[in-house]
Amino acid sequence: MEKARWENNFLIERITSRPAHPARAIVFDFDGTIGMVRAGWMPLMLDMMMETLSPLGPDPEALRAEAEVYVAHLTGRDTVEQTNAFAAHVARLGGHPLTGAEYKAEFLARLEHRRAARLTALRSGEISPEDLMIPGARAFLEGLRTLGLPVYLASGSHHDDICLEAGLLHIEHYFDGIFGSAPGILNKKELLDDIVARGIPPEAILTFGDGRTEIELTQILGGRTVGVASDEPECVAVDRKKRQWLIDAGADCIIPNYLEPDLLDLVTAGY
Fold first, then answer.
1. How confident is the model at residue 225 (pLDDT cuts 50, 70, 90)?
2. N vs C: which end of the chain shows fewer Cβ within 10 Å?
């Protein structure tokens, strides 16, 4: 692994030394990669899980750590995959779990309270769009637009919600396509396959994400990846747990935000 390079307290950490290729298509995850509307969702999910897990074992910290592993591993996919894993965890401990779909509904109801409050504050002007975005994201998207490359937004959150939030953040015009979770909408793997089918070589795809799913899918395809490991909500440094999860998934580089002045070099020249 190459030595991390610090400039003005911002970081691009180069993990791999694969041959550089100029990007010809860019894919972004949304939550935790561009948007912060759902910031703090993982502690919220783990808190919900611990309400059921804590009575089932003598070591709550160990149980939470075990849950955190599968929650992190399945980040970026439909939430039901995480709650299915939770239901299986409860069953292994001798509990009587609800279905994954029921746990998903409960989690989304709790998350919606937080999301709705943030969107209300955004609509009222109490907070600005930048308050709900990873620092530097808008300027980076502006820079990408000047390059004339196709840029896509792909999320495991519901499609209508992602389109609404992208509009409220005033970023929808930066993307050539927005893809959330819904019947008939391309998922992340299908989007990557579609980009290749349109004639873009896999090695010319560059994906930015904070979850294992988009990093793994792009890496398997042969594209390049940037893991966004922000220490939410400040997003000024690298979260060490996220960093390791993303490296394990195959990230080529790690960043905490989009403030690094040389970040466009990842697109135009590669690292």
1. very high
2. N
Look over the chain and give the mean of its residue pLDDT values, rounded to a whole number.
Answer: 92
DSSP-assigned beta bridge partners for residue 226: 208, 253
Q: SS3 of 118, please?
A: helix
- pLDDT tier at 108 (50, 70, 90 boundaries)? very high
Residue with tokens 């993982």: 42
CA-based nearest residue to 258, from 233, 230, 222, 218: 230
pLDDT tens-digit series, residues 57-84: 999 999 999 999 999 989 878 889 999 9
Cα separations in angstroms, 84 against 77, 144, 170, 219, 258 = 12, 38, 34, 25, 34
Q: Is 134 in contact with 258 (CB distance < 8 Å)?
A: yes
Please write the tens of the pLDDT for every residue from 90-103: 999 999 999 999 99
b/e string for 58-96 if b means 16 or more Cβ within 10 A?
eeeeebbebbbebbbbbbbbbbbbbbbbbbebbeeeeee
On whether the CB atoms of residues 232 and 40 are closer than 8 A, the answer is: yes
